[in-house]
Amino acid sequence: MLDQLQALQAQALAELGAVTNRAELDAWDSQYIGKKGQLTQMLRNMGSLSKEERPIFGKAANDVKTVLEAAYAEREKLISDQELAHDLEAGAVDITLPGRPKPTGGLHPSTRTLRRLFEIWGDMGFQVYQSRDIETDDMNFTLLNIPPHHPARDMQDTFYTTTPNVILRTHTSAGQIRAMRELGGNGTKPLRVVLPGMCYRFEQITVRSEVQFHQMEGIAIGKNIHMSDLKGTITEFARRFFSPTAKLRFRSSYFPFTEPSMEIDVECFLCGGEGCRVCKHSGWLEIAGSGMIHPVVLRNGGYDPNEWSGFAFGMGPERMTLLKHGISDIRYFWANDQRFLEQF
Ligand code: DAH
After folding, report:
1. Domain 110-341 falls in which CATH fold?
2. What tens digit of pLDDT does each residue of 259-305 get?
3. Most buried of the four, 97, 168, 182, 282, by CB within 10 Å?
4. Does ligand 1 come within 6 angstroms of the Cβ of 310?
């Protein structure tokens, strides 16, 4: 039996030398030293030996086992190294391949316009005030001199909520009273703020109007602020935003929260005032509503209208972006069509 053991060891080692991969190694393992392997089998059959032979055989078998296990471990390491080397080679990066270009993101055209507006108004001394999208009926209408049932409410179709008197703001003018009350020091401090934000109107969606859009409100309150200040300020703004030679036109209008009120047009820069499709052949494009803040509104904001006066304006960033880039349809702004957005 000892001869058999020696023969087994020799054969096993010879076969192991020919093993080149993990599958062969596993097969070798179960053939010789595994639970059902030949060596294990021989150890099990030890019972047929005599008392004297048993320990001699047992020791010899254990020696063989040690030799085979050591040889197995060595082979296993060799195969692992080979596998690793192979994996590394297969996964190697070919640095001569050209890289894949990563598309860079861009800012939404409305965001770009808003940032430009902040820049210009900031340079002109106006601070940004973020008011809220969800407003009370009071802030949006009543305190702006538009009491319940006032016909001017029909100018702006409103999204109501299930909470009474809570609505989505229809214009950024809704933040006027908040800004005055929060920053005006109970009617003791002059004020120069712009209020940007989304507005919502329950309206038919067309090429010129959407149910959601940005507005940018501006208010300036002080002593001795006049209509001429409003005209000068807006003119300076238009020169910076549109072009240094931009021409403006002021048309008398009506808003409940200003008196007097004006609408402001800029000369169409596509046709230079000649008249074209974009300006509907009038030569002018409307960019803002404005006026001198109504005494009732000043009072609601905490200011004494006998001492203080101010002007206000409201402009539409999408409108202005349309004009600036000659875009024909306002619905592109919220359609999330990359072909449109990527052009900016
Ligand atoms: N809130 C008005 C609108 O949405 C625009 C406007 C007009 C704002 C005159 C003003 C203003 O501040 O003075 O139609």
Report:
1. BirA Bifunctional Protein; domain 2 (3.30.930)
2. 999 999 998 877 888 988 777 899 998 899 999 999 999 999 999 99
3. 168
4. no
